[in-house]
Amino acid sequence: MDAEITLRVDGADQPVTVDTRTTVLDALRERLGNTSPKKGCDHGQCGACTVLVDGRRVLSCLMLAVAADGAEVTTAAGLANGDLHPVQRAFIDHDGFQCGYCTPGQICSAVGVLEESDGELSRAEVAERMSGNLCRCGAYPGIVAAVEQAAGEQR
Amino acid sequence: MDFFRPDSLAEALAAKAEHADAVPIAGGTDVMVELNFDHRRPAALLDLGRIVELHEHGRQDGKVRIGAAVPYARIIDELGRELPGLAMAARTVGSPQIRNRGSVGGNLGAASPAGDSHPALLAANAEVEIASIRGTRMVPVKDFYTGVKRNVLAPDELITAVHIAPATGAQQFSKVGTRNAMVIAVCAFGLALHPDQKRVGTGLGSAAPTPRPATKAEEFIATELDWESPKPLADSVLRRFGALVAEAASPIDDVRGSAAYRRHALAVLARRTLGWAWSEHLGGGRRACA
Q1: Residues 6+ apart with CB under 8 A from B95
Q2: Which of A8, A38, A101, B214 registers the highest number of CB atoms within 10 A of its CB?
Q3: ipTM exceeding the 0.90 mark
């Protein structure tokens, strides 16, 4: 069964007709051409598909597009506003990636971490709060340093 | 696949009565996995995301009433003081992204023996609020689970809330897994001291076809603890308690662990959590996670 919905993706209203079984991830990638969120595991284990829905980090592979009708969806591609988002800048400063596949999810998750916490975070806290995002290249030291920097700047 | 998105609980109950095969979905952290991997092809989904009362918590008759779809993240942030055991269990669920969406109602609906909230709900004597167009009923959580991934829900019923008395004593939750995040429990144990009733509540997870309390261990420790003038517990008492908890389990060998390992680990978790909780009761003030 098809449904007509509107997702507000990275600031722009995107009307789209989707099969009711379509996830937010598939709607973004296959229907709206936004390939920033990645499909890693498709069952919520890896975090590569993390986006912000109404400001909260969620796994877009575990959310139906029809359930997100009218919601504000922010992908890593939509974070930069002229200049890079401070989290994106921090990932570059600290080399927080190797192949880059997990990076959009890591960055959206990190933005969620900053939103959920106030002020400085210890390395252990960053690791715990970022524990839903896997990096198979093992760039964790850089990722943790980047989130620490961004959290420090936010303070 | 039909997709129903009711705006109110009344509409949701009417939809469930009319479409008994509609699978309820809130955060989607369980149901979506089954859908994405084609393990399940429901004729219809019943999205509970718009129903305000399922996303609220508050006090009712002296108990905390948690709407079925309140995500774990809010239980941790907003109910940790009143329900420390459930908050500890909630902290071990999945990952932060999962905790932003997953809920106790979903854990109960799935009724997996490995669900993280079950041991805490059992230890705290939670009650499950179940509704249909026929009315509302309350089921003690120990009577809620009927088999592996089975529960007492009738086809037209929805889980609407859980009711839990605020903690009157120390509570603990412990879970064994390969890492801290994204782990399905190898086994788990929840414990709550109820000094007002002079008893201890327990709950076992991933250790039997259903989550269950360790009744004989509860009966044993109730006679051993001196609530009037609390004293440190003898190691022999802690070990006996652990052994009785292990006896209450009927675990299986599976990819996550062997039955023998699960029994052993449960005895250790039970001994440690009781030790921590009793120390806190004695005034040691220790409230650490396992």
Answers
A1: A44, A47, A131, A132, A133, B181, B182
A2: B214
A3: yes
- Tell me which residue in A3, A45, A57 faces B182 most closely, judged by beta carbons: A45
Q: How many interchain CB pairs under 8 A, A with B?
A: 91
Q: What is the pLDDT of residues B112-163, one digit of tens each?
A: 999 999 999 999 999 999 999 999 999 999 999 999 999 999 999 999 999 9
Model confidence pLDDT, tens digit, residues B151-182:
999 999 999 999 999 999 999 999 999 988 88
Cβ–Cβ under 8 Å, residues B75 and B104:
yes
Cross-chain Cβ contact B97/A57 below 8 Å: yes
CATH assignment of the domain containing B223: 3.30.390.50
Q: Among A58, A113, A128, select the one facing B101 at the smallest CB separation.
A: A58
CATH number reported for the structural domain that contains residue A120 in this entry: 1.10.150.120
Task: Identify the CA nearest to A131 among candidates B247, B218, B165, B180.
Answer: B180
Domains: count for chain A: 2
